[in-house]
């Protein structure tokens, strides 16, 4: 369903068409330099369709074009934006069955909740396989763009790793060769983003309820298994946090494994924490052991409701117990991999929907029937 190689193998053809289209397009429109090939192509298609439909054109057909297109800019274009370190990153690399990026309500909810609960942080949803959206068939984009601290960007896999320890992993196209291409791309990119810019990485199946300012910088969370999870990671852009990110990248450069699902995520971060904290047990990775500079939070901090209770957010009869136990939590994790198939109506009294009304109101108001 997700194919980076498809993009690459079409490259010469794409470049040729691109060149022709640029010339053609400029005749019709004044175009900004950030407009991408895909956006150009669809704008042009819409333009041609509009011209066909209004053969007795009255002179203003341009108005039809582009109104719904939201262009993303390359995250590398404005790297000065990240200097404050108060950055929250999401990575969106899943495609819909139609092969386009379409934010689900639950992903959008994670993003809105992060922006609401951390108004003085910048929230960067980073898209991997697209550079633009048609907002009229991607209904959660507009509600998110009402937040001035949400900045959507795309990651160019061809250039993003330049000058980092992962440069050769990317140029060898080892990621495209992975058996878990979506998961492994997201595993690798989160460490790369934190190495380059610093901040907090979050999975898109969370709801953020409180400010991250409550936590000391540099942390991950255990979810109670023998491995440290990588769904929530904060690393500073300098010092100990940066050295940890660098160690993870060097490890990935050497040991990236496209065949094992958790190899480049939990296994890799745990291995590096064992080195930094000089202990083998996850439960012993306290801040004191990790140079006084990095915490591995116990499971109840980010993953309080977990297997075998991971679906309790979805059942109304569990709502009261869930809401009581998460009362003061900074964020909750919804285990999308295991729960994405559970339908929720917008009027359900399940804890997830209740939390959505409170922490991502714009998104849930946009849902028709299901959340
Ligand atoms: C955007 O999507 C709408 C609804 O599907 C469609 O009518 C419109 O043509 C699309 N616009 C472009 C420029 O693709
Ligand atoms: C791609 O994966 C195969 C195993 O599935 C491996 O033999 C090969 O070396 C890999 N290629 C790259 C470029 O990593
Ligand atoms: C790591 O811990 C062992 C004891 O478990 C100790 O002997 C060793 O000196 C420690 N190494 C460092 C670098 O702190
Ligand atoms: C943690 O370290 C202590 C000694 O420092 C040891 O007794 C204990 O077994 C270790 N493991 C756990 C899970 O606490
Ligand atoms: C939710 O709405 C549906 C109709 O869409 C209705 O049948 C159901 O009873 C409602 N449930 C609750 C808990 O209000």
TrEMBL record:
An annotated GO cellular component: Golgi membrane
GO molecular function: alpha-1,4-N-acetylgalactosaminyltransferase activity
Biological-process GO terms, alphabetical: glycosphingolipid biosynthetic process
Principal place of residence: Golgi
InterPro entries linked to this entry: A1-4-GlycosylTfrase_dom, Glycosyltransf_32, GlycoTrfase_DXD_sugar-bd_CS, Nucleotide-diphossugar_trans
Residue intervals of the Alpha 1,4-glycosyltransferase domain: 238-366
Keyword Lipoprotein: no
Annotated family: Belongs to the glycosyltransferase 32 family.
Protein name (Swiss-Prot/TrEMBL): Lactosylceramide 4-alpha-galactosyltransferase
Organism of this sequence: Culex quinquefasciatus
